[in-house]
Write a structure and sequence with these properties.
The chain has about 325 residues and is α/β, with parallel strands linked by helices. The protein is about 40% helix and about 15% strand. It has a 9-stranded mixed sheet, sandwiched between helices. β7, α11 and β8 form a beta-alpha-beta unit. The radius of gyration is 19 Å and the shape is globular.
């Protein structure tokens, strides 16, 4: 085999099958089922067109907070943050975007960031959300950024957490693999709990903090029908040329914005991206969390929740580098 890239691909395939077993034995979960109910929240579905969307609602009498997950994630990622916001009076909504979590994953659908942004706006219209405090991690941060550019009237305040939205960065190895020919077949062969565990631990600075419950939560949702195909479509559908007209309008965002970033996010969104975001969004601040990877809301949920509340209460108005968290 003369092509070293293909040889590496084959070696990885053999190694993954050897470590994890064949993914063809996985039992997949049909659409429309919540296999793991959301604690302290109401799991609901709403059909928009032909797509059934799942969302977790934490009712309260105060302002609406919309929380949107990242790539390969779901409403689960907010389960350690949303209840505290609810207790402080915020009405929290966590939605599974099309292709993720318990929402439908139709074959042949588009899963690029702009399409997902329009889908989120359609979901907001369907559930009656007129204006929200938008909180997004990773891909969900990018969706929020594009929403604030395209529909500024619906975004009151914007909170971007390790957001993948503005500047091209080197793609993680897993997304490179998903773009390779035959990845749909290979993905099903190597798909396993071990693969999910490895990927999840790669998002953490403290990889040993990832629990079995977390791994099971991600693995269970990725066992829904169409999930792997949606991930592949997402990886292949990313087109930076289509995003440039939006990223150039960052200076037009008028929402007060807090940008949170784990300083040790080296695999997915390097901190330089958020530092440049800070320069381009006029009414923004940047908070850096040391010893933290790509998902502060899971690795440091108490810190992330406190930052959100302080920002919304007007107690946090300047760029900040937090001290190293105590373990």
């Amino acid at each position: 085999m003369r092509n070293p890239g293909k040889l590496l691909y084959l070696i990885i395939l053999v190694a993954c099958i050897g470590l994890s077993g064949c993914g063809l034995c996985v039992k997949y979960i049909p659409s429309g089922i919540v296999a793991q109910p959301t604690p302290s929240a109401e799991d609901q579905f709403i059909k928009i067109g032909s797509v059934n969307y799942h969302y977790a609602e934490y009712p309260a009498g105060g302002p609406d907070v919309l929380m949107v997950h990242g790539w390969s994630s779901s409403t689960y990622t907010w389960e350690k943050v949303a209840p505290t916001l609810q207790k402080q009076g915020y009405h929290v909504w966590c939605v599974d975007m099309q292709g993720f979590g318990w929402s439908d994953k139709p074959g042949g659908a588009a899963y690029d960031p702009l399409t997902l942004m329009r889908d989120v706006k359609a979901w907001m219209d369907a559930v009656g959300l007129k204006k929200v405090i938008y909180v997004g991690n990773s891909l969900g941060g990018g969706v929020g950024f594009y929403l604030a550019v395209e529909h500024p009237e619906v975004v009151d305040k914007l909170i971007l957490i390790d957001a993948a939205c503005l500047y091209p960065v080197k793609d993680p190895f897993i997304t490179d693999l998903l773009r390779l020919p035959g990845s749909a077949i290979v993905g099903k062969l190597i798909f396993s709990r071990w693969m999910i565990s490895t990927n999840l631990k790669g998002t953490y600075y403290h990889s040993d903090w990832v629990t079995d419950d977390q791994i099971d939560a991600y693995y269970t949702r990725m066992r829904t029908i169409g999930a792997l195909d949606a991930m592949i479509a997402m990886a292949r559908g990313l087109d930076l040329k289509k995003l440039k007209p939006y990223t150039r309008r960052a200076g037009l965002i008028q929402s007060q914005t807090m940008i949170i970033h784990g300083q040790n996010d080296t695999t997915w969104v390097p901190i330089e991206s958020s530092r440049r975001l800070r320069q381009n969004i006029p009414h923004s601040i940047l908070v850096e969390i040391p010893e933290c990877g790509h998902m502060p809301q899971e690795e440091h949920p108490a810190i992330t929740t406190r930052l959100i509340l302080d920002f919304l209460d007007g107690k946090l108005a300047h760029d900040t580098v937090l001290p190293k968290p105590s373990t």
